[in-house]
Amino acid sequence: MFFWRERIEPSGARYGVEWAFTDRRGGSSQAPFDQLNLARHVGDLDEAVTTNRHRLAHELGLRLADLRFMDQVHGCDVAVTPGTQDHDQEQADAAPSVDGLISGRTDEALVVMVADCVPVLLVDRTEGFVAAVHAGRLGMVTGVVPATVAGMRELGAEDIEALVGPSVCARCYEVPAEMRDAAAAVAPSAAAVTWTGTPAIDVAAGVVEQLVREGVPVRWLPGCTRENPDLYSHRRDGQTGRFVGVVRLLEREQVA
Ligand SMILES: [Zn+2]
Q1: Taking the CB of the first residue and of the last residue of the chain, which one, N or C, has fewer CB atoms within 10 A?
Q2: Cβ within 8 Å of residue 163, ≥6 positions away
Q3: Ligand 1 centroid to residue 200 C-alpha, Å
Q4: What is the DSSP string of 77-110?
Q5: How far is the centre of ligand 1, averaged over its atoms, from the C-alpha of 250 (Å)?
Q6: Which residue(s) pair with 129 in the sheet?
Q7: pLDDT tens, 3-48?
Q8: Ligand 1 centroid vs 39 CA: distance in angstroms?
Q9: d(CA 171, ligand 1 centre) in Å
Q10: CA within 13 Å, CB half, 44
Q11: Residues sharing a CB contact under 8 Å with residue 180, sequence separation 6 or more, in sequence order
């Protein structure tokens, strides 16, 4: 079920965090979505996706209703979950059409779905905020990651750490030269070449550069979705499922 998982317990006045990336093992979806597809928009059976989402929630000690998904649109809009601020509770069940989601709650987990795009998870363990971000090529170019960092800082975050999950690597991501140049104009680290020396974009490197520029410490996990059959890859398989990055803030300890 998990490609990578870590739980940092709260300590004193600091919040804890549980964050993870799933793989495609241990679910009930059939080919070409097998097995742990967590996305409804890809053509998989709804009941299979619901079963898979239940399993993920259960693993995290939450209910399905506590998982907060986004209706990801490759843009740079960011939303804050209801209850973090003075938000309209009526919208609590709707997945907002954004690519960055921020929460200050400890009773829900934020989820970003990917199959080559870059999943970014953020936490501020001092002020108590988490965020999940979907950064594909367009998201990197339009700055969805810096926009999410800015959104957290507006809420009061000062001590943000980032975790960058597996995505398609530069050598596997061939693009036209003009597209590479447009990405490099935003973040020079994004300019790359493929296994055969043709123009490519390193979207994750671009995202890491953006985080470093924001002064946010980064951990970048190794792994190429296109090369690892345990992960979903749209470039490799076309119609396929989505794995997720998931992040949950853990309550800080009662300080006497
Ligand atoms: Zn690769």
Answers
A1: C
A2: 19, 120, 121, 122, 123, 218, 219, 221, 245, 247
A3: 11
A4: -EEE-TTTSS--GGGGGSPPS-SEEEE--SS-EE
A5: 34
A6: 124
A7: 999 999 999 999 999 999 999 999 999 999 999 999 999 999 999 9
A8: 23
A9: 5
A10: 28
A11: 190, 191, 192, 199, 200, 201
Q: Is the CATH number 3.60.140.10 carried by domain 2-250?
A: yes
Residue 215 tokens, joined: 């002064």
The full set of domain ranges for the chain reads 2-250
User: Regarding predicted confidence, which is higher, 217 or 85?
Assistant: 217
Report the separation in Å between the CA atom of 27 and the middle of ligand 1, taken as the mean of its atom positions. 25
Residue 175 token pair = 């693009």
**Residues lying with their CB under 5 A of ligand 1, a single-atom ion:** 169, 172, 224, 226-227
The answer, yes or no, to whether residue 89 has pLDDT greater than 60, is no
Burial of 133 per CB tally in 10 Å (0-12, 13-18, 19+):
buried
Q: Which two tokens stand for residue 162?
A: 């980032």
Structure tokens at 249: 């803030």
Which pLDDT score, from 0 to 100, does residue 131 have? 98
Burial of 29-65, coded b for 16+ CB within 10 Å and e otherwise, reads beeebbbbbbbbebebeeebbeebbebbbebbebeee
Q: From the CA of 196, how far away is ligand 1's center (Å)?
A: 12
